[in-house]
Amino acid sequence: MASWKPLGISISAAIIFSSVAYLFFLFSSTTVDPIRKQHTSSTSTSTSHQSHFQAPAENPFAEIDDREASEIYTFLHQSPSVDLGKGADSRNLNYLIELLRPNKSDVVKYLDNNGPVPDRWARVSNLEIRKDNSYIVDYMVGPLPLSNDTQILPLTYPYNSGRNYVQSPISDVFALLDWALSIGENASDITQELLGAQVNRNDPSDPDALVMGSRPALIDQGHMVHWLEFFGSGIASDSRSLLPQGLYVKLDTPSANPSTWKTGQWFYNGFLYDNDTALREAMKSPDFVKLELNHDGSWTDTEDFSTVFPERDMPPPLSIQPYGPRYHLDRAQNYISWMGFSFFLSTAQATALSLFDIRYNSTRIIYQLGLQEALAHYAGVEPLQSGLEFLDTFFGMGSMMFSLVPGVDCPGHAEYIDMSYHKGGKMYTNKNAICIFEYTSDAPLQRHTSTFSATVSRNTYLVVRSVSTVGNYDYTIDYIFYLDGSIEIKLRASGYIFGAFHAEPRSSSQPRDAHTNEYGYRIHPALHTSMHDHVVSFKADLDICGTSNTMVRTSIEPLQREYDWDKPEVPLVRNTMHMVHHTVRHETGLNWPQNGRDMYLVTAPNSTNKWGETRAYRILGGTGVGNPSHLTILNSTTLGKSASWSSADLWVLKNHPDSEPSSAHHMNYLEPLNPLVDFEKMVDGEEIEEEDLVLYFNLGGHHVPSSQDVPNTLMHTSASSVMFVPFNYFDDDVSRASRQGVRIDRRPRPKKAEGKAAQLDTEGKEKEEIRRSSKGRVASRSDRAEVDDENDDDDEGVKYFGGRYTKPVTVSEGMLSPDLRHYMKERDGEPGGEWKTVRNNVGGGLLGLFVGKERQKEEGDGKRRMDW
Predict the structure, then answer these.
(1) What is the DSSP letter of 114?
(2) Residue 597 CA, distance from chain mean position
(3) CA-based diameter of the chain, in Å?
(4) Distance from C-alpha of 192 to C-alpha of 202, rounded to nearest angstrom
(5) I want to staple 464 with a disulfide (CB 3.0 to 4.6 A). Which of 479, 535, 592, 771 is the partner?
(6) Does residue 786 carry a pLDDT above 80?
(7) For 65-87, what is each residue's pLDDT tens digit?
(8) Nearest Cα to Cα of residue 367 among 391, 349, 343
């Protein structure tokens, strides 16, 4: 297949099993009006002051809008270069159209040197079928808008495999789903006896029916082997991942041709059976042991109303913003400016939200900051958990950026931006998928108490937030900006854990573990937790004072050294410490150091601050629960070569942004042994001193769930972050110019200042005038908090800097308790029409995604779609 050239040849590719069906047939949220621009969004309070704010340039990373996508879709179907939907027997189709992000070299010329706007191209993915083989094929279409110069070309330059396609093990996903259901139906006597229920092939929505989920044990050049497990329905609480039933069957699909598919072994209570017949025979034995079952119930509900705390009925403290936002947002260009920071927003169906051209005081710090891939890798003592892993961009972490809940996901004063994407010939919109807000921490940014004075500053920061719900997990991703020029990327996870079956005989009078389990803890009669690693990769293309950067590892090490001034009291050496500076000369992976003894600095060797120190940004573990982790498993059997970036915490590489724009590809999931993007090939030992550098860093952690993870994992126990902190980058602390707080000075004031004392008093007054200058600017704005200078003087040394509240404010009810009556709803037809529900098509999770709950619906165009 290496020599196959897809362009101009009728090749194919339908998808494999149900999770792939999800990716291509499951379309999320709301269809957009054809003439409506992307990212038209709902807003919160007081946005009129934003109306005249404009980005300094057109956003070169803006997603393909509906008009562009519709024109491209028509162009593809009319082009002889690709075979889409031509003829009654054609199974080829286009499933994805999105922006092919422009090369960094072109964008920098445009933004920095008044160059031309970069040419606009689209990335399209088609499903193409050739005989019994299925392929997912990537093309590039451009330049846009469509003209006589527009071309359709194989998209190969971003992929170091040299290919623009992956092979899919299944050509007819609906045949696979029906086959899986038929296996359960044919074994209904077994499932009724052991599990007390059956699958319902004729009515998959039956709330009492079993559902089925699977994981691949092997994917290699179109050959797939996977284990399927039966689960309880959990129809009332979406708790299916907590209801494994302990019965497994092995499926073998050696080719995409359904005639070659076969059922393999069955597994129950630690025993492998050659087939269902062998299992039936074993069940007849009086020594055959039946196991406890997992039943749904109130224990899986996320809320408990049986226990009453009177304080629960009292509204809690909330963040308010009575005078409107202090940041500026250009919605047309998705451009934000706040306290010296500025940046563009961009979204993608696989990798969700990214930030581009992040600047501080008009100087670029980071060219690109965004998600690359999200890995979850499990381990266990039974067929499903023992090799279970997910690469969640495969399911679409961007298309699953669902609507945030105002007032809970984000403060009541947050503003929102929609996320739109084009799939299968239609544009879909997830409303309010991104929120932006400023927040004041419960802890100060700065404080100091001296003999007669105290000074304290508020820690106020800007947050850009999104949540991607992939199957059982919700990933909250924050990009946080601080007044001192620091940037933090924070990941939190919540949702239902993926439980493992606990084999407990039904005859046991006092169920308990006989031995300590090495993979998790028992949390229900027939349920164990399942240990797993979350490793979520992000890209940071840093440009510190330009693109000539060097990584320096500064170690804090113990030292023994003699000092002349220690004699004779210290006759030998003094035990102390010092810094040792190591230049990282070649591409490599790094781990967070034990005891935090190493500092990782991206330096600008040719630029110094006014003190002569090399300007730099430091990369360090942030405010999460411990340092982020890398993958524990060495050379994962399941992952193959698809996620080698997960083997270290932090990677520093020479940047090739035009040919190596990412560390992964969402279709790596389908060819893990021969991925489209092989990260190992990117780490090829190039010299990286005074070069354009790119960092790939991981967030996440080692998750060993306990009973406190039932029913949902809590975010404050699963948070991790990385911070980029200025390190000799500025001449001093730049937050002094923008922060707000108070200085209280109780030094005795002399009645009369003479001589030198008078001079010092004059200097002190001059300094005080400087401190109060910013306060004066606030006082001049009548629509903001009032500052009373006369009152300050009466307060005997209490001096506020920055705006403050001096009188009661009126806060709208919507800011305190936003109206959620129309959450996940849209108008039916014209404005003023009735509201109808817009459901979130949450996918991901188990491959096969509980196929017993899937429905096949007829779209208006006659095509079937998946409704999980």
Answers:
(1) -
(2) 29
(3) 108
(4) 17
(5) 479
(6) no
(7) 999 999 999 999 999 888 886 65
(8) 343
Whether residue 778 is predicted with pLDDT greater than 50 in this model: the reply is no
Long-range pairs of 782-788 with CB within 8 A, sequence gap ≥ 24:
783/323, 784/323, 785/323
The radius of gyration of the chain from alpha carbons, rounded to an integer in Å, stands at 30
Of residues 435, 342, 423, the one with CA closest to residue 63: 423
Residue 466 CB coordination number (10 Å): 26
Q: Which two tokens stand for residue 119?
A: 């040419």
In sequence order, which residues have a C-beta less than 8 Å from that of residue 595 and are 6 or more positions away? none
CA distance 350 to 334: 19
Distance separating alpha carbons of residues 536 and 253, to the nearest angstrom: 30
- Which tokens in the block code for residue 389? 């892993």
Distance CA 676, CA 161 (A): 5
Identify whether 541 is a catalytic site residue: no
pLDDT at 208: 86
825 touches 837 (CB < 8 A)? yes
- Interhelix angle 188-195/173-186, nearest 10 degrees: 60
Measured CA to CA, the distance from residue 140 to residue 748 in angstroms comes to 74
Structure-block tokens of residue 447: 């404080």
* 3-state SS assignment for residue 44: coil
Tens digit of pLDDT for each residue in 473-506? Answer: 999 999 999 999 999 999 999 999 999 999 888 7
Residue in 473, 521, 669, 696 annotated catalytic: 473
Check 330, 392, 418, 533 and give the catalytic one.
Answer: 392
Q: In the chain, helix, strand, coil percent, each to 5?
A: 20, 35, 45
CA distance 82 to 124: 11
The answer to whether the CB of 740 falls within 8 A of the CB of 458 is: yes
Other Cβ atoms within 10 Å of 515 Cβ, number: 5
- Residue 158 and residue 681 in contact, taking contact as beta carbons nearer than 8 Å: no
CB 142 within 8 A of CB 150: yes
Distance CA 294, CA 523 (A): 11
* 392 is an active site residue: yes
State how beta strands 650-654 and 588-590 pair: antiparallel
Cα 466 to Cα 347: distance, rounded to the nearest angstrom: 11
* 728 touches 609 (CB < 8 A): yes
* CA nearest neighbour of 212 among 503, 471, 18: 18
Question: Can you read off the two tokens belonging to residue 38?
Answer: 């992307």
As beta bridge partners, residue 667 has none
Contact (CB, 8 A) for 586 and 687? yes
Reference 163, options 349, 334, 11; nearest CA is 11
Report yes or no: 849 and 867 within 8 Å, Cβ to Cβ: no
**Inter-residue contact 739 to 802 (CB < 8 Å):** yes
The count of other CB atoms within 10 Å of the CB of residue 104 is: 22
Confidence of residue 15 (pLDDT cuts 50, 70, 90): very low
Q: How far is CA 172 from the centre of its chain?
A: 31
pTM of the shown model: 0.89
